[in-house]
Automatic annotation (TrEMBL):
Keywords per UniProt: Oxidoreductase
Enzyme Commission number: 1.14.13.2
Keyword Oxidoreductase in record: yes
GO MF assignments: 4-hydroxybenzoate 3-monooxygenase activity; FAD binding
Domain FAD-binding: 3-335
UniProt keyword annotation of Transit peptide present: no
InterPro entries noted in UniProt: FAD-bd (IPR002938), FAD/NAD-bd_sf (IPR036188), PheA/TfdB_FAD_monoxygenase (IPR050631)
One Pfam family matching this protein: FAD_binding_3
Native source organism of the sequence: Streptomyces guryensis
Annotated protein name in UniProt: 4-hydroxybenzoate 3-monooxygenase
SUPFAM superfamilies reported for this sequence: FAD-linked reductases, C-terminal domain (SSF54373), FAD/NAD(P)-binding domain (SSF51905)
Amino acid sequence: ESTTVVVIGAGPAGLTVANLLRRSGIDCVVLERRSREYVAQRQRAGIVETRAVRMFDSWGLADRVLGGIPYDGILELRVDGESHLVSDNDGSEGPRARLCPQQVLVQKLTAVYLADGGDLRFEAADVSLHDLTGDRPTVRYRTADGALRTVSCAFVAGCDGDHGISRTAVPDGALTAYAQDHGIGWLTVLADAPPPAHPLLAVSPHGFAAHFPRGPQASRYYLQCPPDDHPDAWPDARIWDALRTRLADPALPVGPITDRETFRLRSLVHDPMQYGRLHLVGDAAHIVSPMGGKGMNLALHDADVFARAVRDAVRDDDDTALRSYSQRCLRRVWNDQEFSHWLTRTLHDAGDAAESGPFHRNLARARLDRLLTSPAAAHAFAELMTGLDLTE
Ligand code: APR
């Protein structure tokens, strides 16, 4: 069997690559380890930034793949109980950011791709990559009923996340990993409870907390916790108590909790994002600390750069864009890593003197003060939120 591109993984990165290739008339096969039901349920990020909305719009896909609830681009920063609004309005024209939970985007991308006749194979086991530096790489896998299959292709898109097999197919030493553990844990909670008016980030002496809208009657919450905390340490009553204290809202409405998880905040970049005919896209290439909501948006950016580059190569026999794929993506990756790192440090250090020490607490307070008083600082923040800062 033969195709032009084999896409490994059907998360936001892989499904976006597949849809954009399909719209360019380029054949591809998507291999996903899990079932369709499993992939559709995975809960993660929730903001599709302005740049990414316009990217989908430019492909004629925005209305078909974006859902969720309307968003006016305003964030609330609550510092010791005092409320401040920050806007992502950077003065640019065009459609703007959407509050679209990742699983809604994934469900819609899957449906659109399949409705357009796309080839998507769930429950593909033991995927392995071969001859990545030759002219025709091959991808092997096993179907749900145990049959071995081989697909040859011109390019492989490794969109299988941080624990996928694509990156492990690259020989040791070919990629450099830049890793950062922020020494911070987060508890994330999903509940059927009323959403806030705006996504809310709160600084308090008891630690960072956040409250995000997930639907008309659904919310996602974050609570800073020790880096190796276990969700069992957080029974419902403790969660609501901590949220009321840190959000400085004694009347915070509660609701049934449907999910709780803990994780460590970390950042990771692999450079370059390509090896031979394999291109790493999204989490397979980089992890960004969740603060700032850039993880999914970076995956969407990589997918767009990759799909356009493949289109140039296949249609016009021009591989310039493919050769600069990594360089172009990494520029935005580091820009967003810096934003996310800055916001992570600012919102945690400003509240928690015990962890970072009083000097860093005062630095973080000064950064918040600047953001909330200087129009130039507010504009720079808006540019980083929308994702329109880099000349493309
Ligand atoms: N073979 C096939 N598929 C695989 C394999 C494998 N060996 N390993 C993983 N996968 C699949 C996973 O099941 C998943 O569906 O690859 C997909 C990877 O999806 P994500 O982890 O969601 O990564 P990505 O698409 O890059 O999404 C970007 O942005 O909001 C952040 O981290 C968040 O996942 C999000 C990311």
